[in-house]
């Protein structure tokens, strides 16, 4: 998308710098009374706008570099936002902060595997009779996600070196290193060794969302100037999102508390916020018969959420006070196990009916409901 629309600046160009200005004006200040409410409302609106703008500009950069690099750019951009939100909220301390990282990462995994994947499969299957994708690529991504989830979120509840659902120091360091290694191996496989497993098939020209001036059946990539502008605005948007999240954190926690929801639901709110644009992008891709791209986004988001967040949190734990609980509760373990089985059965055939999409969405609904009523 061009930076201008009918001669005017597009909102995705305006939102990041405006968000950065508001962040500079509100950072370190705590207004009281009605002004505080105004600040929270404005900061919240700009936070959402900055998130959406960040993913839009990540899409522009992704289109320039091509697939599967494009999906990787989106996943990493979303994960940077997620890590920033987690760390800023953990630094504020308070009740339930020891499980915030776990709750947010687990929520991101459930939303990605069941929400993004389920909605994409449902939309594509309803529109094109069957949702078709490459089982080798989807299977490799799913296996990596499940291995990461097992090593970082399941094992802490069964180790004996530390009490409760915590890793000991060496165990946390091992989990962080393994996460980086697994994520790196997958990225190498996806972008170098077996890149063809993660590429979409041919797409009808009518399904393209950008101009096709050379009539080659593929949308034309953005120009170098458009890409450079989007990259700069992406960086501004990411910084703004992290900063505004810290400004908004008291309002998010107060809203969750006022509704009577468990503190762990804060993690669900964070995951829903940062993955909403990713969900939209995947659904649009699925509607255009680019189901493999949608699955790259879904599985890639879950993988990056664990593979990049856990190492950062492990390093940050050196400066954070109090325990860090990463192990899943029994209900969460059951939901992860059911999701793993269903997702495996979904990707093996390489095509899916609307039923599979519906099953994943029901699992997402169960996760959200049980997060509110554990």
UniProtKB/TrEMBL annotation:
Organism: Nocardioides perillae
A Gene Ontology molecular function term of the record: sodium:proton antiporter activity
Signal peptide: none
Location relative to the cell: Membrane
PANTHER family attached to this UniProt entry: SODIUM-POTASSIUM/PROTON ANTIPORTER CHAA (PTHR37958), SODIUM-POTASSIUM_PROTON ANTIPORTER CHAA (PTHR37958:SF1)
Transmembrane portions of the chain: 9-28, 34-57, 69-91, 106-126, 138-159, 171-189, 228-245, 251-276, 297-319, 331-348, 355-372
Keywords recorded for this protein, A-Z: Membrane, Transmembrane, Transmembrane helix
Subcellular location, principal: membrane
The name this protein goes by in its record: Ca2+:H+ antiporter
GO CC, any one term: plasma membrane
Domain Sodium/calcium exchanger membrane region: start-end pairs: 37-191, 230-372
Superkingdom of source: Bacteria
Membrane protein topology class: Multi-pass membrane protein
């Amino acid at each position: 998308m061009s930076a201008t629309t009918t001669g005017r600046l597009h909102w995705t160009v305006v939102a990041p710098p405006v968000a950065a200005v508001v962040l500079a004006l509100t950072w370190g200040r705590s207004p009281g009374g009605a002004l505080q409410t105004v600040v929270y409302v404005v900061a919240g609106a700009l936070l959402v706008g900055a998130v959406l703008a960040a993913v839009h500009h990540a899409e522009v950069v992704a289109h320039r570099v091509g697939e599967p690099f494009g999906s990787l750019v989106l996943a990493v951009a979303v994960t940077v936002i997620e890590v920033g939100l987690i760390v800023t909220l953990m630094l504020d301390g308070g009740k339930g902060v020891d499980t915030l990282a776990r709750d947010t990462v687990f929520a991101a995994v459930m939303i990605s595997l069941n929400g993004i994947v389920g909605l994409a499969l449902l939309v594509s299957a309803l529109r094109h009779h069957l949702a078709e994708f490459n089982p080798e690529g989807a299977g490799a991504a799913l296996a990596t996600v499940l291995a990461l989830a097992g090593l970082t979120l399941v094992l802490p509840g069964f180790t004996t070196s530390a009490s409760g659902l915590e890793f000991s120091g060496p165990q946390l360091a091992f989990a962080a290193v393994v996460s980086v290694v697994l994520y790196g191996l997958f990225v190498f496989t996806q972008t170098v060794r077996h890149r063809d497993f993660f590429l979409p098939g041919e797409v009808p020209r009518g399904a393209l969302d950008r101009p096709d001036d050379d009539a080659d059946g593929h949308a034309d990539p953005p120009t170098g100037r458009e890409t450079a502008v989007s990259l700069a605005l992406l960086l501004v948007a990411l910084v703004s999102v992290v900063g505004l999240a810290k400004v908004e954190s008291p309002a998010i926690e107060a809203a969750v508390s006022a509704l009577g929801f468990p503190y762990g639901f804060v993690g669900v709110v964070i995951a829903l916020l940062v993955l909403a644009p990713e969900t939209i992008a995947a659904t649009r891709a699925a509607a255009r018969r680019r189901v493999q791209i949608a699955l790259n986004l879904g599985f890639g988001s879950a993988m990056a959420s664990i593979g990049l967040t856990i190492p950062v949190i492990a390093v940050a734990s050196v400066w954070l006070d109090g325990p860090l609980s990463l192990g899943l509760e029994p209900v969460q373990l059951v939901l992860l196990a059911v999701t793993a089985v269903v997702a495996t059965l979904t990707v093996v055939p390489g095509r899916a009916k609307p039923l599979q999409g519906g099953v994943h969405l029901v699992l997402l609904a169960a996760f959200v409901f049980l997060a509110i009523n554990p």
